[in-house]
Amino acid sequence: MSTQQLAIIDYGMGNLHSVAKAIEHVAPNFSVVVTSDKDIIGNADHVILPGVGAIRDCMAEIRQQQVDTVVQSTIESGKPLLGICVGMQALLKSSDENDGTDCLNHFDGDVQQFTKGLVDEQGLPLKVPHMGWNHVHQRVDHPLWHNIESGSRFYFVHSFYAQAKADYTAGSSHYGNEFAAMIYRDNIYATQFHPEKSHQAGLQLLKNFTQWNGQL
Amino acid sequence: MPLAKRIIPCLDVDQGRVVKGVNFVNIRDAGDPVEVAKRYNEQGADEITMLDITATHEGRGTMIETVQAIAGQVFIPLTVGGGIRTIDDIRTMLNAGADKVSINSAAISNPEFVRQASQRFGAQCIVVAIDAKKVDDHWEIFTHGGRKPTGINAVDWAVKMEQFGAGEILLTSMDCDGVKTGFDIALTRAVADAVSVPVIASGGVGNLQHLSEGVLQGHADAVLAASIFHFGEFTIEQAKQDMAKNAIEVRL
């Protein structure tokens, strides 16, 4: 089999090194490139849209560097696309963060903040960000869940979340509210958690991504 | 509650070696940081924190290489601290593979640095480290390995750092650090209850029960320890089993 190309879209937000290293670890036959070059992304077999930090800055960079059109053409091409963290939130319609930010609208949902005043079973306030390892319950049978048990823990770090809507939620978690931990449609899937930081379960998910043809 | 309490082994690194001292002196060698990090990853550590305890200009290159080597082999969150003073320092560490940076004395000399860092990189990767000692009826922040008082109240400072954009507080009791008598529970609880961001308790772990006390009595979201793991006394897995027996949610 010839070497497959995986492009991680670099639009200046965050640490892309970990994602690249994790992919290289699970798929040594892949050529991984971190890039903002539209042609390289266009020629890649698999594409990852990462993102950390504040959504307004991310969306500004996405628009400025025309990542929105790259994402659009990736989706239309049918090749597998993975969004991670703010890269997932960017695929939704809008976010409440930064006084309201319009996003790419590939999924009909809003991103909201974990409100202050949420408490756990002992009545202690829930800390925000939601930071650490939480259970992810699988809601659908998806190729990306291959060899991963439902309820496995993944690493999260976020203050905003998307509601778990039945028509796009592949996995959900609970932190004060139930929220979407993984969303999907056709050749797109996206995680609120960081698979590249989620040890074995996360590495398995990334391996599944590299082996996926983008079809359900 | 489903979110697991975290166990974070801490690697104090000096000139490319993991070391451990008592009350910041009497240093013992505990091995190669990459090997140590890999071992903790295999044992189920939830994160790894690495502190450059010398943080000299000459040592910085070694530290970057160490971060790169760990990040290429360990796929759990990695926090790096020690000598982080500028936006460039943060960018360098994140590019090397760190997920979070821990800021300590630079926050004290210039609190605005925390705000700038948080705005630039996001609160999720900005940890503010607080080294506190008991002074009369309160806790005060000390710098320079505990030698220099600042006059700043530790609880007030934690609240202020949250307002400035810290995503997490790494709280070390300098009275307890290295003496293995357990966390300063009152300090941990005072800070954890005062802020709405996660608090990592640090300093003083000598046995497994201390870890549970940090969570149950100190209200810590994560517990950090070094020497009980470095010298083979306990594994991370044993620590988690013990916490689970105390009905604490852990990732097993």
UniProtKB/TrEMBL annotation, chain A:
User: EC number(s) in its UniProt entry?
Assistant: 4.3.2.10, 3.5.1.2
The record's section on Pfam families has:
GATase
User: Cellular component GO terms, alphabetically?
Assistant: cytoplasm
Q: Which residues form the active site?
A: C85, H194, E196
Any Gene Ontology biological process: L-histidine biosynthetic process
What PROSITE patterns is this protein classified in?
GATASE_TYPE_1
A single MF term (Gene Ontology):
lyase activity
**Pathway this chain belongs to:** Amino-acid biosynthesis; L-histidine biosynthesis; L-histidine from 5-phospho-alpha-D-ribose 1-diphosphate: step 5/9
Q: Which domain of life is it from?
A: Bacteria
Q: Which reaction does it catalyse?
A: L-glutamine + H2O = L-glutamate + NH4(+); 5-[(5-phospho-1-deoxy-D-ribulos-1-ylimino)methylamino]-1-(5-phospho-beta-D-ribosyl)imidazole-4-carboxamide + L-glutamine = D-erythro-1-(imidazol-4-yl)glycerol 3-phosphate + 5-amino-1-(5-phospho-beta-D-ribosyl)imidazole-4-carboxamide + L-glutamate + H(+)
Predominant location of this chain?
A: cytoplasm
Question: What SUPFAM superfamilies does this protein map onto?
Answer: Class I glutamine amidotransferase-like
Q: Where in the cell is it found?
A: Cytoplasm
Where in the numbering of this chain does the Glutamine amidotransferase domain appear?
A: 8-209
Keyword Secreted set for record: no
Could you list this entry's UniProt keywords, alphabetically sorted.
Answer: Amino-acid biosynthesis, Cytoplasm, Glutamine amidotransferase, Histidine biosynthesis, Hydrolase, Lyase
Quaternary structure? Heterodimer of HisH and HisF.
State its role. IGPS catalyzes the conversion of PRFAR and glutamine to IGP, AICAR and glutamate. The HisH subunit catalyzes the hydrolysis of glutamine to glutamate and ammonia as part of the synthesis of IGP and AICAR. The resulting ammonia molecule is channeled to the active site of HisF.
The name on file for this protein is Imidazole glycerol phosphate synthase subunit HisH
Q: What is the lineage of its organism?
A: Bacteria, Pseudomonadati, Pseudomonadota, Gammaproteobacteria, Oceanospirillales
Its gene is hisH
Automatic annotation (TrEMBL), chain B:
**GO cellular component terms, A-Z:** cytoplasm
Which CDD domains does this UniProt record tie to the protein?
Answer: HisF
Q: Molecular function (GO) terms listed?
A: imidazoleglycerol-phosphate synthase activity; lyase activity
Stored Gene3D superfamilies: Aldolase class I (3.20.20.70)
Record keywords, A-Z: Amino-acid biosynthesis, Cytoplasm, Histidine biosynthesis, Lyase
Listed under catalytic activity are: 5-[(5-phospho-1-deoxy-D-ribulos-1-ylimino)methylamino]-1-(5-phospho-beta-D-ribosyl)imidazole-4-carboxamide + L-glutamine = D-erythro-1-(imidazol-4-yl)glycerol 3-phosphate + 5-amino-1-(5-phospho-beta-D-ribosyl)imidazole-4-carboxamide + L-glutamate + H(+)
| Enzyme Commission number(s) of this protein | 4.3.2.10
Recorded hits in InterPro entries, A to Z, give: Aldolase_TIM (IPR013785), His_biosynth (IPR006062), HisF (IPR004651), IGPS_HisA/HisF (IPR050064), RibuloseP-bd_barrel (IPR011060)
Q: Which GO terms describe its biological process?
A: L-histidine biosynthetic process
UniProt subcellular location: Cytoplasm
Superkingdom of this entry's organism?
Bacteria
Positions annotated as active site in the UniProt record: D12, D131
The pathway it acts in is: Amino-acid biosynthesis; L-histidine biosynthesis; L-histidine from 5-phospho-alpha-D-ribose 1-diphosphate: step 5/9
Say what the protein does. Answer: IGPS catalyzes the conversion of PRFAR and glutamine to IGP, AICAR and glutamate. The HisF subunit catalyzes the cyclization activity that produces IGP and AICAR from PRFAR using the ammonia provided by the HisH subunit.
Looking up HAMAP family in the UniProt record yields: HisF
Q: What do we know about how this protein assembles, alone or with others?
A: Heterodimer of HisH and HisF.
Q: Which family does it belong to?
A: Belongs to the HisA/HisF family.
Name used for this protein in its record: Imidazole glycerol phosphate synthase subunit HisF
What species was this sequence derived from?
Answer: Reinekea thalattae
What does the record give as the organism's lineage?
Bacteria, Pseudomonadati, Pseudomonadota, Gammaproteobacteria, Oceanospirillales
